[in-house]
Design brief:
The protein is mostly helical. It contains 8 helices and 3 strands; from the N terminus they run H-H-H-H-E-H-E-H-E-H-H. It has 2 domains: 1-50 and 65-90, no CATH class; 91-191, P-loop containing nucleotide triphosphate hydrolases (Rossmann fold, 3-Layer(aba) Sandwich), CATH 3.40.50. Its EC number is 6.3.3.3.
Length: 191
């Protein structure tokens, strides 16, 4: 049975018009190591994944790897998103919730990345309500100070359901200058 949960790759393709590539997809939306166990499938092979990702890289191409639930989520038995980032020497853009408990979660993630000597280019808030509660409003002001990495902005709730044109207009109107700058710097580094 295929999961009815919308897949991130399809949402990204719909919103941006860019073609994404999937290396593997499991039926259930679980951490990859648990999804493989649930399906009685072989655990993910880190070397094969790294090789495939390196094959996607090319001059003037920015490869974006979507996380699977967090920096320390297991992709295989002992292989995490953090391990993947280290193997690829990939900088991290950490997407965080914005409500109660989010400052702690964001700071712990940044701390875990730094402990592993991974570069963090910034934090991006995901799915913020149109009328955010008090905790969210205060958190938006504190993320940068608490984490000591740039807070690059927050994406409004429901943005994934927009048409490509409406999403483009939203991004243009929100004007994520800090995110634009961080991505431009990454692109410059890859050229």
């Amino acid at each position: 049975m295929i999961s009815k949960i919308p897949l991130d790759i399809f949402t990204i393709e719909k919103l941006t018009g860019l073609k994404g590539k999937e290396w593997i997809r499991y039926r259930d939306p679980l951490a990859p190591n648990l999804a493989a166990l649930q399906e009685c499938a072989e655990p993910l092979d880190p070397a094969a994944l790294i090789s495939w990702l390196k094959d996607q890289d090319a001059p003037q191409r920015l490869v974006v790897i979507g996380g699977a639930g967090g920096l320390l989520v297991r992709l295989g038995a002992e292989f995490t998103i953090a391990d993947l980032a280290r193997e690829l020497d990939a900088p991290l853009l950490i997407v965080t919730s914005t409500g109660l408990g989010s400052l702690n979660a964001a700071e712990l993630t940044v701390e875990a990345a730094r402990h592993r000597q991974l570069a963090v280019i910034g934090l991006l808030g995901g799915s913020i309500d149109n009328a955010p509660d008090l905790a969210t409003r205060l958190n938006l002001k504190e993320f940068e100070k608490i984490s000591q990495v740039p807070f690059l902005g927050a994406v409004p709730k429901g943005a994934g359901a927009l048409s490509s044109a409406d999403f483009g207009a939203l991004v243009h109107n929100l004007g994520f200058p800090a995110l634009d700058k961080a991505v431009a710097e990454l692109v410059d580094q890859t050229l």
